């Protein structure tokens, strides 16, 4: 009510407001449960979570209102299909793991990334029964988050961590870390283990492996994913990682607080024209700074943009794989 800047809406890259007064009017409508064009037009980029200087969770509230009012960001059949496809499968069995335990979420195809000196001795857990379920923020389904996340946490504990000798869970994807920190905190979900962000883990390992680092000495562009908006502290940790391996994160228009959606979510929402526009703007910006690598943290961003950037001469690569190169592997 007393906010002077209405940063959550004034900084939005996808909606525009004539002035702060108009943004305030729309924000108050959202707060009061009234109709607002923001609920219809939002790209679900998560960025307003980061823009709010008071940690007031504007995006989580926006999703809550979308669901209450049945304002769906994607066609209903798409959402229904996703809900079935991404549902827990109930096929989980107990597996002996030991630390570091790395949560690969719903990406079994990436478990091979957990290798070498960087992840020495690590175990991985993966599958739909440990899926973090944060993606429902893109589909106006807070109720699914509330329903499924406690079940996932219970699965992680009872099938893996309880007998593992560790209470720490390294989250390979910052969607998971965002779920078990920011979302859990805002939604009142108890998390009995200690989530560790992949960047914090890698940064610490690079301290231990400092003698093995062969500087990359290359320019990179970084595609910052939507879920990193929920945990902006970790973007500075990523800078520390790049510094340690001598990868120069070249400043560009669409990085950091001004990061642009990869286009994957509007594509999933069937907003193809918008998705095409975002991809074009982003890649043009990447190419303008003369980098060698396009670095991703989010596998979904990499699936969306990887081939496009490769065709333009940039090498698409995950953060962990770039670090593996610097470790000579
Ligand atoms: S989620 Fe993104 S598009 Fe939606 S209101 Fe927030 S900043 Fe704007
Ligand atoms: S959510 Fe944050 S930025 Fe938006 S009006 Fe409230 S205090 Fe201001």
For the CA atoms, what is the radius of gyration? 20 Å
| Total number of helices | 14
Number of self-contained structural domains = 3
Bound molecules: iron/sulfur cluster
* Shape assignment: globular
The string of secondary-structure elements, in order, is HHHHHHEEHEHEHEHEHHEHEH
Strand order of the largest sheet: 2-1-3-4
Largest sheet geometry: 4 strands, parallel
Q: Which CATH C-level class of the largest domain is it?
A: Alpha Beta
CATH topology of the largest domain: Rossmann fold
- Taken as a percent bin, the fraction of beta residues is 5-15%
Rounded to the nearest angstrom, the distance between the terminal CA atoms is: 53 Å
CATH architecture of the largest domain: 3-Layer(aba) Sandwich
Low-confidence stretches: none
Quickly give the structural class.
Answer: alpha/beta
Helix content range of the residues, please?
Answer: 40-55%
Number of strands: 8
Average pLDDT: 97
